[in-house]
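S1.2 Input.
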Amino acid sequence: MQRFSFALIAACAAPLLFAQPVSAEVINQGEGSFVTRNAVVVKADPFEAWQALITPSKWWNSSHTWSADAENLYISAQAGGCFCELLPVPIDAPEGIRRGSAHHMTVVLADPAKVLRMRGALGPLQSEPADGVLTITLTPSDKGTVIVFEYVVGGYMRFGTAEIAKAVDGVMNQQLAGLARLLGPVAPARGKNGPEAGAEAGAEDNAQQGDVEAGPASAAPTGKPAPDAPVRKAVSVDEAFGQITEEPITEE
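S1.3 Output.
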């Protein structure tokens, strides 16, 4: 398998960081743990943003999937539902082989137009005993909706925290930029002293709300590409997120 350095993914993510009105940052980092936060203001109202958010096939970057096609992604936006991916049946598979699938995260809180919280280890973290919680808050503002992605990761990982934190932050930034392009970006959400500070504070309050009413999970899509859809070259998750070396990377 071809390997890439974390420097390469950082370089690839950098143009997107400046091209898209998204605020991105590793806000905390410790021994085997880190927190990334990415924020943007979009033109859509919270319910429009919610509908787009729970349809990752429309905005997730295909380069960061197992199947190399975001059309295969879906989110069942109910507690216990999953952020999953359908995998194509191998071309040389014998008749009767069912298509595979990948579980990216589990939904633990779905409060429409307010909060989506999912638990799971994305990308190369899936092969590690580490875990993560992604909280996505939607808060109305006078310009549209403030969307904040906050991903908290902790646990044993076979690579340096600083490197993987930077790589994951770059990838999360790409995904939020894709969602912003779909909805119409306005500007990055400001920090605590900025004009969107109240909205971000409201998002934090929303994230503390209790259980939501249970309901049936939404049906998963077929995941089949359109007949004329171009065939994408499959890439490994290692390639998408950066280098996962044969030997563990240790902290300095």
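S1.4 Remarks. Residues 23-86+101-209 form a domain with the Alpha-D-Glucose-1,6-Bisphosphate; Chain A, domain 4 fold (CATH 3.30.530.20).
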